[in-house]
Write a structure and sequence with these properties.
Elements: H1 2-8, E1 13-22, E2 32-35, E3 40-42, H2 47-61, E4 69-73, E5 85-93, H3 98-105, E6 110-115, H4 119-128, E7 133-139, E8 153-157, E9 173-176, H5 181-197, E10 203-206, H6 210-222, H7 227-230, E11 233-234, H8 247-260
Parallel strand pairs: 6-7, 6-9, 7-8, 9-10, 10-11
Antiparallel strand pairs: 1-2, 1-5, 2-3, 4-5
């Protein structure tokens, strides 16, 4: 989006948006690409459909006039066997449209709280940054965060670290991976208390082994949490079958698991 709007300051583009789809299609409604004379930002799914749309958009930049909305059957004629129908909208945009485009095209972001700025936390932020999450990154160590985090990441110093739980956005997904098991335990306990009072966290994920979770279960039971409350915690986190322990491998596995949850309200 930033690359699109920064280019738009200097030259016009044709915005191609997937307006509706029927049947199987490479991208869902709302997907878009901006076509400049010598550049393309975004994608409507690739293949011959996109190739033709780019060519048509450039003809429009050159002055050709055509229908604003067009239907395309994804069959043999396009060399794509998806079998669905895609309706594309073409519109010429300029620098004066930047504010409205930012409001229209900004993706809906799912709130996610990440407790821990260590190696796995950093790898996870890098993996999640291009995805539709609004990330609150929390650590008790003030110096742990990068000087220039991604635009969708808010860094928050909290000491004690569990103090940040009360202010998390409703429906947040919570991931806990601090440098200290004691801190992890306190954050899990704070999340369960919030669930008891408000029940508005989408999930609570804790990094660690089955052995770690067995120890935590016992300690949380001593703090008064029952079986149904403890069942709200996922530990270990990540997709089953991905065994690598490198931070980047863990990050990809956890990101995939988060995407399986879908948007708020779907689960």
């Amino acid at each position: 989006m930033t690359h699109f709007t920064s280019r738009l300051i200097h030259e016009d583009a044709v915005l191609v948006t997937v307006e509706t789809t029927q049947g199987s299609a490479p991208r869902d409604a709302g997907a878009w690409m901006a076509v400049f004379a010598n550049d393309v930002v975004g994608s409507i799914g690739g293949g011959h459909l996109e190739f033709q749309a780019i060519a048509q958009a450039r003809r429009r930049l050159a002055g050709e006039v055509g229908e604003a909305v067009q239907s395309h059957a994804l069959g043999p004629g396009l060399g794509q066997c998806c079998g669905g129908v895609v309706r594309l909208r073409f519109e010429r945009v300029a620098a004066a449209d930047i504010s409205s485009l930012q409001a229209r095209l900004a993706p809906a972001r799912v709130p996610l709280a990440l407790f821990g700025g260590g190696h796995v936390g950093k790898a996870l932020v890098n993996t999640l940054a291009p995805l539709p999450f609004a990330i609150t990154w929390v650590d008790s160590r003030d110096e742990i965060f990068p000087a220039d985090p991604p635009a969708n990441v808010h860094c928050e110093h909290s000491d004690p670290v569990q103090g940040a739980v009360a202010g998390l956005a409703p429906h947040s997904r919570v991931l806990i991976m601090s440098f200290s098991h004691a801190q992890d335990l306190d954050v899990v306990a704070a999340c369960l208390l919030r669930q008891r009072e408000r029940g508005d966290l989408a999930c609570i994920g804790l990094i660690g082994s089955a052995t770690k979770w067995a120890t935590f279960r016992h300690r949380l039971e001593q703090r008064g949490f029952g079986e149904s409350e403890l069942a709200q915690v996922t530990c270990p986190i990540g997709l089953p079958g991905i065994a690598g322990k490198e931070p980047e491998v863990i990050a990809v596995s956890v990101a995939a698991q988060l995407l399986q949850l879908g948007a708020p309200g779907q689960r």
